[in-house]
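Field reference: sequence -> structure
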Amino acid sequence: MDKRTVQSAHSRIDLVEKDMVEVKTELRIQLKDLYVRTKRTEQILWAAAGSIIALLIAVLMKVG
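Structure field:
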């Protein structure tokens, strides 16, 4: 069994800090990926809206 000393506490804390850095890095990568996906979706929606507006203008020009 592990003796509960100050030194063992420091070593356990060091292990936890390494794990936290790993988790933070993973989270940062995932958030960056999510941001890129959101921007791509936004660009697609803007392109679709522009196409719809262009088609509506074309229809109005033919009618008018």
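Note: The chain has a mean pLDDT of 92.
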